[in-house]
Amino acid sequence: MAAMLLLTLRGTPTIYYGDEIGMAQVPIPPERVHGLGVGRDGCRTPMQWSSEPHAGFSTVDSWLPLASDWRRENVENQRADATVLNLYRRLIALRRSSPALARGAYQPIAASGDLLVFIRAEGDERMLVALNLGGEPVAFELRDRGLKGRLLVSSLGDRDGEAVNKTIDLRSHEGAVIGLDR
Q: How far apart are CA 19 and CA 85, in angstroms?
């Protein structure tokens, strides 16, 4: 969900390597901490490229340890499915092709509970972003607002291209970017 918010809001998105595959925080043993022990970020351990030895990062053990899930959570394994990596790719591609997401105005839409909704607009292009930040499914009424369009990116990766009219139903922790009709 953080990727969806980061890549649909105004401003320059900043992505640290490993965010795009969901790399986990790794405890750094005291003997591997440099100097005073400040500034070492456990999320910035070696990039998990593959399930090959040493996560495809090196041919030898690295100074910092790998996360325990590196054989499963790596770039190679995530390339072919609707994972965090492909969500980042789809959102970056959409942002690059969309004037509204790249430089458009921000307009918040009143919503309740765990729902965050806003429109990004530039010229004739309008994108509605709806994020369900909660653990329960929610429906957001579009009909009363005269909005309809097509779901361009769903954070869960299985609804892209759906027509959206009247309501947008969001599952638990799901986000959607909807290209609104002109």
A: 8
Rounded Cα–Cα distance for residues 120 and 178 (Å): 10
Taking the model in full, what pTM does it have? 0.84
Please tell me the distance from the alpha carbon of residue 153 to that of residue 170, in angstroms, as a whole number: 12
Q: How far apart are CA 3 and CA 25, in angstroms?
A: 17
Give alpha helix (H) positions in 35-166: 75-78, 84-97, 99-103
CB 68: neighbour CB atoms within 10 A? 10
20-44 pLDDT tens trace: 888 888 888 777 777 666 655 666 7
- Are 165 and 142 within 8 A, CB to CB? yes
29 Cβ partners below 8 Å, 6+ apart? 65
Let me know: does 122 contact 100? Beta carbons within 8 Å: yes
pLDDT in tens, 145-173: 778 899 999 999 899 999 999 889 999 99
DSSP for residue 17:
T
φ, ψ (nearest 5 deg) of residue 141: -75, 120
Extended strands (E) in 94-144: 105-109, 115-122, 125-132, 138-141
For domain 100-180, the CATH class is mainly beta
Query: Domain extents for the chain?
Result: 100-180
Give the number of residues written for the chain: 182
